[in-house]
Design a protein that fits this description.
The protein contains 6 helices and 4 strands. By secondary structure, the protein is of the alpha/beta class.
Length: about 180
């Protein structure tokens, strides 16, 4: 797997690229159990009160997206209110399915997260297709794609930070309206 990551494959879509990256089956990749982690986070949110949103970078974005995806499922299945209102992802990877092994790919599920989200990508990121496959799991009317035109990094220049800050404030405002 490490060799394939170093020479990242190309596919027709972001999801195809990830399938080429893990030809043994992206959906069957053996992740450690995530459910206990999610339950712990839910307990903390219940104890502390509302948390406005979640932020993640790279694999951390995968965990943050998994939390939002699971929250969306709980909302649709039980009517439980969404406590997290916005997602901010830097150079992310797609969400994991917390009840199955593997990652969720947009062309293999009809589920999407219906929350405001910002997907900060770098068009020079060698792992860009991972971030795009994460973006594809979110409602296209609520998701914002923000390209800082660099690599697998968090933007640092003043102009980009200001633009990103404006985008984040708008997403928070939309999330508060939900």
């Amino acid at each position: 797997m490490l060799d394939r990551i170093r020479r990242f494959p190309e596919g027709a879509t972001a999801e195809d690229t990830l399938r080429k990256l893990a030809p043994e089956g992206v959906a069957n990749y053996d992740f450690p159990p995530i459910r206990p982690c999610l339950n712990y986070i839910y307990e903390q949110i219940e104890r502390e009160g509302d948390v406005g949103g979640v932020v993640g970078y790279s694999e951390g974005a995968m965990i943050a997206a998994t939390l939002l995806f699971d929250q969306e499922r709980r909302h649709l299945e039980t009517g439980r209110p969404r406590r997290l209102k916005v997602g901010l992802f830097f150079n992310g990877w797609p969400a994991m399915d917390p009840d199955e092994k593997g990652v969720l790919l947009a062309d293999e599920t009809e589920e999407v997260v219906h929350l405001p989200s910002i997907h900060v990508i770098g068009s020079g990121d060698p792992y860009l297709q991972g971030a795009m496959s994460l973006y594809n799991l979110f409602d296209e009317d609520a998701a914002v794609l923000f390209d800082h035109a660099k690599g697998h990094t968090i933007p640092r220049d003043t102009r980009t930070i200001k633009e990103l800050g404006d985008t984040i404030r708008e997403a928070i405002h939309r999330g508060e309206q939900m």
